[in-house]
Amino acid sequence: MNQAICSNLWCRVIFKFEGDETPKECPKCSSFNTHLSGGVTWTDKVYDGSRYDNTPHITKIDVKKYFK
Q1: pLDDT tens sequence across 44-58
Q2: Residue 53 and residue 34: Cα distance in Å, rounded?
Q3: pLDDT-derived band of residue 8, with 50, 70 and 90 as boundaries?
Q4: Which of 1, 32, 58, 59 is deepest in the core (most CB within 10 A)?
Q5: DSSP-assigned letters across all residues of 51-65
């Protein structure tokens, strides 16, 4: 068994895997990206005006295919 660290910024767990090719994500993050949300993509936020203008900015998190 080999070990690797998950490349997702919010996870960073150490996980075990079999085989020669090292996966970039742990099984949990891989499942979340493909099955739960329909895919997670990172995008840079573009602000109209100053980012540091002491006013709140609206954030949006788009998660699709949520199952309980």
Answers
A1: 666 666 777 887 777
A2: 37
A3: confident
A4: 32
A5: S-SSS---------S
The pTM of this model reads 0.48
The strand pairing partners of 15, in sequence order, are 4
**Residue 26's CB: how many other CB atoms inside 10 A?**
21
Chain centre distance of CA 26: 11
User: For residue 11, what are the CA distances in angstroms to 47, 55, 62?
Assistant: 27, 30, 19
Where do the H-state alpha helices sit in 1-68? 27-31
The whole-angstrom separation of Cα 51 and Cα 6 is 30
Judge whether 30 and 42 are in contact, CB under 8 Å: no
Q: For 17-48, write each residue's pLDDT tens digit.
A: 999 999 998 988 888 766 665 555 666 666 66
